[in-house]
Specification:
The chain is α/β, with parallel strands linked by helices. It contains 14 helices and 17 strands. An eight-stranded mixed β-sheet has the order 1-10-8-9-7-2-5-6, with helices on both faces. Strands 15-14-11-16-17 form a five-stranded parallel β-sheet, sandwiched between helices. The chain starts with a strand and ends in an 11-residue tail after the last helix.
Amino acid sequence: MASRKRKLPAKDKPLPASKLTRAAGGKRHVSALILARGGSKGIHLKNIKLLAGVPLLGWVVRAAVDSEMFDSVWVSTDHDDIEKVAKSWGAKVHRRSPGVSKDSSTSLETIQEFVRINPEIGVVCNIQATSPCLHPFHLKEALEMITQQGFDSVFSVVRRHQFRWQEVKKGSGEETKPLNLDPAGRPRRQDWDGELCENGSFYFTTADNVLTRGLLQGGAVAYYEMLPEYSVDIDVDIDWPVAEQRVLRYGYFGRATPEVVRLMFCNVSGCLTEGRIFMSNSGEEMVSIHTRDTAGIRMLQKQQMEVVLLTSKLDPVSRSLADKLAERTGCEVAEVGEEPLDDLRPMVEQRKLKWKDVAYMGVDAQDVKCLNLAGLSAVPSDAPSVAVNATKYTCHRAGGAGALREFAEHILLQKEKAKAQMEQHRIDRHDF
Protein backbone atom coordinates (compact mmCIF):
# COMPACT_ATOMS: atom_id res chain seq x y z
CA MET A 1 0.00 0.00 0.00
CA ALA A 2 1.00 3.63 -0.19
CA SER A 3 1.32 3.73 3.57
CA ARG A 4 1.55 1.57 6.65
CA LYS A 5 0.33 2.85 9.97
CA ARG A 6 1.54 1.59 13.33
CA LYS A 7 1.17 2.64 16.95
CA LEU A 8 4.26 3.26 19.03
CA PRO A 9 4.41 2.47 22.76
CA ALA A 10 3.96 5.43 25.09
CA LYS A 11 4.85 5.49 28.79
CA ASP A 12 1.93 7.69 29.76
CA LYS A 13 -1.41 6.45 28.45
CA PRO A 14 -4.07 9.07 29.17
CA LEU A 15 -7.33 9.04 27.27
CA PRO A 16 -6.34 10.55 23.88
CA ALA A 17 -7.23 14.20 23.50
CA SER A 18 -9.06 13.37 20.28
CA LYS A 19 -11.48 11.10 22.18
CA LEU A 20 -11.97 13.68 24.89
CA THR A 21 -12.91 16.25 22.26
CA ARG A 22 -15.39 13.98 20.53
CA ALA A 23 -16.92 13.05 23.86
CA ALA A 24 -17.53 16.74 24.49
CA GLY A 25 -19.16 17.00 21.08
CA GLY A 26 -16.67 19.57 19.83
CA LYS A 27 -14.74 19.87 16.60
CA ARG A 28 -11.16 20.96 16.90
CA HIS A 29 -9.59 23.51 14.61
CA VAL A 30 -6.95 21.71 12.54
CA SER A 31 -4.12 23.89 11.23
CA ALA A 32 -1.17 23.27 8.93
CA LEU A 33 2.01 25.20 9.75
CA ILE A 34 5.05 25.41 7.46
CA LEU A 35 8.19 26.87 9.02
CA ALA A 36 10.14 29.01 6.54
CA ARG A 37 12.75 31.22 8.16
CA GLY A 38 14.62 33.60 5.85
CA GLY A 39 18.07 32.85 7.24
CA SER A 40 18.70 29.42 5.73
CA LYS A 41 22.38 28.56 6.13
CA GLY A 42 22.58 25.89 3.41
CA ILE A 43 20.95 27.74 0.47
CA HIS A 44 20.09 31.46 0.49
CA LEU A 45 16.30 31.90 0.67
CA LYS A 46 15.97 28.19 -0.09
CA ASN A 47 12.28 28.13 0.81
CA ILE A 48 11.31 30.30 -2.18
CA LYS A 49 13.94 29.14 -4.67
CA LEU A 50 12.32 27.74 -7.81
CA LEU A 51 12.17 23.96 -8.02
CA ALA A 52 10.75 22.61 -11.31
CA GLY A 53 9.23 26.02 -11.96
CA VAL A 54 7.54 26.39 -8.54
CA PRO A 55 8.86 28.05 -5.36
CA LEU A 56 9.93 25.28 -2.97
CA LEU A 57 7.40 26.52 -0.44
CA GLY A 58 4.64 26.37 -3.06
CA TRP A 59 4.80 22.58 -3.37
CA VAL A 60 3.80 21.89 0.23
CA VAL A 61 1.36 24.81 0.53
CA ARG A 62 -0.49 23.52 -2.55
CA ALA A 63 -0.63 19.99 -1.12
CA ALA A 64 -1.95 21.28 2.21
CA VAL A 65 -4.60 23.54 0.67
CA ASP A 66 -5.78 20.92 -1.84
CA SER A 67 -6.08 18.23 0.85
CA GLU A 68 -9.13 20.16 2.15
CA MET A 69 -8.38 18.72 5.59
CA PHE A 70 -7.25 21.92 7.29
CA ASP A 71 -9.27 24.78 8.73
CA SER A 72 -6.28 27.03 8.10
CA VAL A 73 -2.91 26.79 6.35
CA TRP A 74 -0.09 28.98 7.67
CA VAL A 75 3.51 29.81 6.87
CA SER A 76 5.66 31.01 9.76
CA THR A 77 8.42 33.34 8.59
CA ASP A 78 10.49 36.39 9.42
CA HIS A 79 11.14 37.44 5.81
CA ASP A 80 9.08 39.78 3.58
CA ASP A 81 9.76 37.91 0.31
CA ILE A 82 8.75 34.57 1.84
CA GLU A 83 5.57 36.19 3.15
CA LYS A 84 4.66 37.40 -0.36
CA VAL A 85 5.18 33.96 -1.90
CA ALA A 86 3.24 32.24 0.90
CA LYS A 87 0.23 34.49 0.42
CA SER A 88 0.33 34.11 -3.36
CA TRP A 89 -0.01 30.32 -2.89
CA GLY A 90 -2.99 30.65 -0.56
CA ALA A 91 -1.44 30.50 2.91
CA LYS A 92 -1.87 32.81 5.88
CA VAL A 93 1.30 34.20 7.43
CA HIS A 94 2.52 34.08 11.01
CA ARG A 95 5.26 36.68 11.46
CA ARG A 96 7.40 34.99 14.06
CA SER A 97 9.01 37.04 16.80
CA PRO A 98 12.78 37.72 16.90
CA GLY A 99 12.99 35.37 19.88
CA VAL A 100 12.18 32.33 17.72
CA SER A 101 13.96 33.54 14.57
CA LYS A 102 17.52 32.86 15.72
CA ASP A 103 19.86 30.23 14.29
CA SER A 104 19.57 28.46 17.64
CA SER A 105 15.75 28.51 17.71
CA THR A 106 14.04 25.12 17.53
CA SER A 107 11.00 24.17 15.49
CA LEU A 108 9.14 23.37 18.70
CA GLU A 109 9.69 26.89 20.08
CA THR A 110 8.22 28.43 16.91
CA ILE A 111 5.24 26.06 16.95
CA GLN A 112 4.60 26.83 20.61
CA GLU A 113 4.57 30.56 19.88
CA PHE A 114 2.17 30.00 16.97
CA VAL A 115 -0.25 27.88 19.04
CA ARG A 116 -0.23 30.38 21.94
CA ILE A 117 -1.13 33.21 19.53
CA ASN A 118 -3.92 31.08 17.99
CA PRO A 119 -5.62 29.39 20.98
CA GLU A 120 -8.51 28.08 18.83
CA ILE A 121 -6.16 25.48 17.30
CA GLY A 122 -6.64 21.95 18.62
CA VAL A 123 -4.44 20.00 16.19
CA VAL A 124 -1.39 21.37 14.36
CA CYS A 125 0.53 19.77 11.49
CA ASN A 126 4.11 20.93 11.12
CA ILE A 127 4.91 20.43 7.42
CA GLN A 128 8.51 20.67 6.27
CA ALA A 129 8.95 23.13 3.40
CA THR A 130 11.78 21.01 1.97
CA SER A 131 9.53 18.01 1.20
CA PRO A 132 8.26 18.87 -2.30
CA CYS A 133 6.89 15.41 -3.14
CA LEU A 134 4.22 15.59 -0.46
CA HIS A 135 0.70 14.86 -1.78
CA PRO A 136 -2.73 15.72 -0.35
CA PHE A 137 -3.54 12.04 0.21
CA HIS A 138 -0.55 11.72 2.58
CA LEU A 139 -1.93 14.48 4.79
CA LYS A 140 -5.51 13.23 4.56
CA GLU A 141 -4.68 9.67 5.59
CA ALA A 142 -2.38 10.77 8.42
CA LEU A 143 -4.89 13.24 9.86
CA GLU A 144 -7.61 10.60 9.82
CA MET A 145 -5.44 8.58 12.20
CA ILE A 146 -6.01 11.38 14.73
CA THR A 147 -9.60 12.33 13.95
CA GLN A 148 -10.95 8.81 13.40
CA GLN A 149 -8.55 6.42 15.15
CA GLY A 150 -7.85 8.45 18.28
CA PHE A 151 -4.10 9.02 18.10
CA ASP A 152 -2.58 12.19 19.54
CA SER A 153 0.55 12.33 17.37
CA VAL A 154 1.25 11.02 13.87
CA PHE A 155 4.51 11.59 12.03
CA SER A 156 5.87 10.52 8.64
CA VAL A 157 8.52 7.84 8.14
CA VAL A 158 10.21 6.08 5.25
CA ARG A 159 11.52 2.51 5.10
CA ARG A 160 15.28 2.23 4.60
CA HIS A 161 17.28 -0.87 3.77
CA GLN A 162 20.67 0.17 5.06
CA PHE A 163 23.00 -1.76 7.34
CA ARG A 164 24.35 0.43 10.14
CA TRP A 165 27.68 0.13 11.95
CA GLN A 166 28.91 1.69 15.18
CA GLU A 167 31.02 4.81 14.66
CA VAL A 168 34.55 4.82 16.11
CA LYS A 169 36.98 7.69 16.44
CA LYS A 170 39.73 7.79 13.86
CA GLY A 171 43.02 6.51 15.26
CA SER A 172 41.44 5.06 18.39
CA GLY A 173 42.18 1.49 17.41
CA GLU A 174 38.65 0.46 18.39
CA GLU A 175 36.76 -2.09 16.36
CA THR A 176 33.40 -1.25 14.87
CA LYS A 177 30.35 -3.39 15.53
CA PRO A 178 27.19 -3.99 13.52
CA LEU A 179 24.11 -2.26 14.89
CA ASN A 180 21.30 -3.87 12.96
CA LEU A 181 22.61 -7.05 11.36
CA ASP A 182 24.45 -10.29 11.98
CA PRO A 183 27.32 -10.49 9.42
CA ALA A 184 27.15 -14.30 9.62
CA GLY A 185 23.56 -14.22 8.46
CA ARG A 186 23.50 -11.17 6.21
CA PRO A 187 19.95 -11.07 4.80
CA ARG A 188 18.96 -10.43 1.20
CA ARG A 189 17.03 -7.21 0.68
CA GLN A 190 13.84 -9.09 -0.20
CA ASP A 191 14.11 -11.09 3.03
CA TRP A 192 14.50 -8.03 5.27
CA ASP A 193 11.76 -5.52 6.03
CA GLY A 194 14.31 -2.77 6.66
CA GLU A 195 13.95 -0.04 9.28
CA LEU A 196 11.62 2.91 9.67
CA CYS A 197 13.25 6.34 9.80
CA GLU A 198 11.66 9.75 10.21
CA ASN A 199 11.67 11.57 6.87
CA GLY A 200 10.61 14.91 8.35
CA SER A 201 7.78 15.54 5.88
CA PHE A 202 5.18 16.24 8.56
CA TYR A 203 4.31 15.95 12.26
CA PHE A 204 0.68 16.00 13.39
CA THR A 205 0.11 16.60 17.09
CA THR A 206 -2.34 18.15 19.54
CA ALA A 207 -2.02 21.63 20.96
CA ASP A 208 -1.90 20.02 24.40
CA ASN A 209 1.22 18.07 23.41
CA VAL A 210 2.90 21.23 22.17
CA LEU A 211 2.04 23.52 25.07
CA THR A 212 1.70 21.25 28.11
CA ARG A 213 4.19 18.49 27.36
CA GLY A 214 6.56 20.37 25.08
CA LEU A 215 6.45 17.49 22.57
CA LEU A 216 5.65 16.90 18.91
CA GLN A 217 5.38 13.17 19.59
CA GLY A 218 3.47 12.43 22.78
CA GLY A 219 0.37 10.71 24.13
CA ALA A 220 -0.88 7.98 21.82
CA VAL A 221 1.75 7.99 19.05
CA ALA A 222 1.64 6.45 15.57
CA TYR A 223 3.65 6.71 12.38
CA TYR A 224 2.57 7.11 8.77
CA GLU A 225 4.81 5.38 6.24
CA MET A 226 5.53 7.12 2.94
CA LEU A 227 7.04 5.33 -0.05
CA PRO A 228 10.68 6.26 -0.80
CA GLU A 229 9.88 8.08 -4.03
CA TYR A 230 7.88 10.67 -2.07
CA SER A 231 10.59 11.17 0.56
CA VAL A 232 12.67 14.03 -0.80
CA ASP A 233 14.55 16.41 1.47
CA ILE A 234 16.61 19.37 0.27
CA ASP A 235 19.36 20.82 2.43
CA VAL A 236 22.22 21.77 0.11
CA ASP A 237 22.61 22.87 -3.51
CA ILE A 238 23.80 19.44 -4.63
CA ASP A 239 20.34 18.06 -3.72
CA TRP A 240 18.57 20.49 -6.06
CA PRO A 241 18.95 18.88 -9.54
CA VAL A 242 18.24 15.43 -8.11
CA ALA A 243 15.17 16.70 -6.29
CA GLU A 244 13.95 18.51 -9.41
CA GLN A 245 13.94 15.30 -11.44
CA ARG A 246 12.16 13.47 -8.61
CA VAL A 247 9.53 16.20 -8.33
CA LEU A 248 8.84 16.22 -12.06
CA ARG A 249 7.99 12.54 -11.79
CA TYR A 250 6.43 12.19 -8.33
CA GLY A 251 5.43 15.73 -7.30
CA TYR A 252 1.88 16.97 -6.85
CA PHE A 253 0.96 19.46 -9.58
CA GLY A 254 -2.50 20.41 -8.39
CA ARG A 255 -6.05 19.25 -8.89
CA ALA A 256 -6.23 20.00 -12.61
CA THR A 257 -5.48 16.89 -14.65
CA PRO A 258 -2.93 17.79 -17.34
CA GLU A 259 -4.26 15.14 -19.70
CA VAL A 260 -7.44 17.19 -20.36
CA VAL A 261 -5.54 20.29 -21.56
CA ARG A 262 -6.63 20.80 -25.14
CA LEU A 263 -5.97 24.46 -25.87
CA MET A 264 -2.95 26.69 -25.32
CA PHE A 265 -2.81 30.47 -25.44
CA CYS A 266 0.66 31.99 -25.78
CA ASN A 267 1.66 35.64 -25.88
CA VAL A 268 3.83 36.51 -28.86
CA SER A 269 5.64 39.44 -27.24
CA GLY A 270 7.79 38.30 -24.32
CA CYS A 271 7.01 34.57 -24.68
CA LEU A 272 7.39 33.42 -28.28
CA THR A 273 9.71 36.38 -28.88
CA GLU A 274 12.02 38.36 -26.60
CA GLY A 275 9.64 41.31 -26.87
CA ARG A 276 11.49 43.38 -29.46
CA ILE A 277 10.24 44.34 -32.92
CA PHE A 278 12.86 45.08 -35.56
CA MET A 279 12.25 47.56 -38.38
CA SER A 280 13.78 47.14 -41.85
CA ASN A 281 14.88 50.08 -44.00
CA SER A 282 11.62 49.75 -45.88
CA GLY A 283 9.62 49.98 -42.64
CA GLU A 284 8.76 46.29 -42.50
CA GLU A 285 8.34 44.85 -39.01
CA MET A 286 10.31 41.75 -38.05
CA VAL A 287 10.63 39.57 -34.94
CA SER A 288 13.09 36.88 -33.93
CA ILE A 289 11.73 33.41 -33.11
CA HIS A 290 13.82 30.61 -31.66
CA THR A 291 13.64 27.30 -33.52
CA ARG A 292 13.28 25.53 -30.15
CA ASP A 293 9.99 27.34 -29.62
CA THR A 294 8.54 26.54 -33.03
CA ALA A 295 9.52 22.91 -32.42
CA GLY A 296 7.66 23.11 -29.09
CA ILE A 297 4.53 24.30 -30.88
CA ARG A 298 4.75 21.39 -33.30
CA MET A 299 5.13 18.96 -30.38
CA LEU A 300 1.84 20.18 -28.92
CA GLN A 301 0.06 20.18 -32.26
CA LYS A 302 1.16 16.60 -32.83
CA GLN A 303 -0.68 15.73 -29.60
CA GLN A 304 -3.88 17.32 -30.98
CA MET A 305 -3.51 20.46 -28.89
CA GLU A 306 -4.59 23.72 -30.49
CA VAL A 307 -2.14 26.60 -30.00
CA VAL A 308 -3.36 30.18 -30.34
CA LEU A 309 -0.80 33.00 -30.42
CA LEU A 310 -1.82 36.30 -28.83
CA THR A 311 -0.89 39.82 -29.82
CA SER A 312 -1.98 42.88 -27.85
CA LYS A 313 -3.82 46.02 -28.85
CA LEU A 314 -1.56 47.78 -26.33
CA ASP A 315 1.48 46.79 -28.40
CA PRO A 316 0.06 45.87 -31.83
CA VAL A 317 1.93 44.16 -34.63
CA SER A 318 1.20 44.67 -38.30
CA ARG A 319 -1.28 42.44 -40.08
CA SER A 320 1.46 41.22 -42.40
CA LEU A 321 3.62 40.15 -39.45
CA ALA A 322 0.67 38.37 -37.81
CA ASP A 323 0.02 36.54 -41.09
CA LYS A 324 3.66 35.46 -41.29
CA LEU A 325 3.55 34.17 -37.70
CA ALA A 326 0.42 32.17 -38.51
CA GLU A 327 2.02 30.71 -41.63
CA ARG A 328 5.29 29.91 -39.88
CA THR A 329 3.76 28.21 -36.84
CA GLY A 330 0.45 26.86 -38.16
CA CYS A 331 -1.34 28.71 -35.36
CA GLU A 332 -4.25 31.10 -35.22
CA VAL A 333 -3.07 34.60 -34.23
CA ALA A 334 -5.62 36.53 -32.16
CA GLU A 335 -5.47 40.11 -30.91
CA VAL A 336 -6.53 40.76 -27.30
CA GLY A 337 -7.24 43.96 -25.44
CA GLU A 338 -6.11 45.45 -22.14
CA GLU A 339 -7.88 42.62 -20.29
CA PRO A 340 -7.10 39.41 -22.25
CA LEU A 341 -9.62 37.36 -20.29
CA ASP A 342 -12.51 39.33 -21.77
CA ASP A 343 -11.46 38.33 -25.29
CA LEU A 344 -10.41 34.77 -24.51
CA ARG A 345 -13.41 33.67 -22.46
CA PRO A 346 -15.69 33.51 -25.56
CA MET A 347 -13.01 31.52 -27.42
CA VAL A 348 -12.88 28.94 -24.63
CA GLU A 349 -16.68 28.69 -24.48
CA GLN A 350 -16.96 28.44 -28.27
CA ARG A 351 -14.73 25.34 -28.14
CA LYS A 352 -16.93 23.89 -25.36
CA LEU A 353 -13.98 23.87 -22.97
CA LYS A 354 -13.43 25.02 -19.40
CA TRP A 355 -10.42 26.92 -18.12
CA LYS A 356 -9.05 23.76 -16.50
CA ASP A 357 -8.68 22.48 -20.10
CA VAL A 358 -6.49 25.46 -21.03
CA ALA A 359 -2.75 26.11 -20.83
CA TYR A 360 -1.74 29.78 -20.74
CA MET A 361 1.66 31.37 -21.20
CA GLY A 362 1.84 35.04 -20.23
CA VAL A 363 4.43 37.57 -19.23
CA ASP A 364 3.00 40.54 -17.32
CA ALA A 365 0.31 42.04 -15.08
CA GLN A 366 -2.45 41.89 -17.71
CA ASP A 367 -2.01 38.10 -17.84
CA VAL A 368 -2.53 37.47 -14.11
CA LYS A 369 -6.23 36.52 -14.30
CA CYS A 370 -5.60 34.04 -17.12
CA LEU A 371 -2.53 32.61 -15.38
CA ASN A 372 -4.64 31.99 -12.28
CA LEU A 373 -7.59 30.48 -14.16
CA ALA A 374 -5.77 28.15 -16.54
CA GLY A 375 -5.31 24.49 -15.67
CA LEU A 376 -1.62 24.87 -16.54
CA SER A 377 0.15 28.22 -16.77
CA ALA A 378 3.71 29.44 -17.21
CA VAL A 379 5.85 32.56 -17.53
CA PRO A 380 9.42 32.96 -18.87
CA SER A 381 12.28 33.31 -16.39
CA ASP A 382 12.54 37.05 -17.05
CA ALA A 383 8.87 37.79 -16.27
CA PRO A 384 8.15 40.39 -13.55
CA SER A 385 7.24 39.20 -10.04
CA VAL A 386 3.54 40.03 -10.48
CA ALA A 387 3.30 37.36 -13.18
CA VAL A 388 5.63 34.90 -11.44
CA ASN A 389 3.48 34.98 -8.31
CA ALA A 390 0.35 34.15 -10.33
CA THR A 391 1.68 31.29 -12.43
CA LYS A 392 1.88 27.57 -11.78
CA TYR A 393 5.23 27.13 -13.53
CA THR A 394 8.18 29.45 -14.04
CA CYS A 395 10.49 28.52 -16.91
CA HIS A 396 14.25 28.39 -16.60
CA ARG A 397 14.57 30.01 -20.02
CA ALA A 398 13.75 33.58 -21.00
CA GLY A 399 11.14 34.71 -23.50
CA GLY A 400 12.24 34.15 -27.09
CA ALA A 401 15.02 31.81 -25.94
CA GLY A 402 13.28 28.47 -25.58
CA ALA A 403 10.75 29.20 -22.80
CA LEU A 404 7.79 28.07 -24.93
CA ARG A 405 9.55 24.79 -25.77
CA GLU A 406 10.24 24.25 -22.06
CA PHE A 407 6.57 24.80 -21.19
CA ALA A 408 5.50 22.47 -24.01
CA GLU A 409 7.73 19.74 -22.59
CA HIS A 410 6.29 20.38 -19.14
CA ILE A 411 2.73 20.01 -20.46
CA LEU A 412 3.51 16.75 -22.24
CA LEU A 413 5.37 15.39 -19.22
CA GLN A 414 2.33 16.01 -17.04
CA LYS A 415 0.07 14.31 -19.58
CA GLU A 416 2.25 11.21 -19.50
CA LYS A 417 2.48 11.34 -15.75
CA ALA A 418 -1.29 11.57 -15.40
CA LYS A 419 -1.81 8.53 -17.59
CA ALA A 420 0.87 6.36 -16.03
CA GLN A 421 0.74 7.35 -12.37
CA MET A 422 -2.85 8.00 -11.33
CA GLU A 423 -2.74 5.03 -8.98
CA GLN A 424 0.98 4.41 -8.80
CA HIS A 425 1.16 5.31 -5.11
CA ARG A 426 -1.35 2.56 -4.33
CA ILE A 427 0.92 -0.23 -5.59
CA ASP A 428 2.45 -2.27 -2.79
CA ARG A 429 6.23 -2.60 -2.98
CA HIS A 430 5.95 -6.39 -2.60
CA ASP A 431 4.11 -6.56 -5.92
CA PHE A 432 7.19 -5.64 -7.92
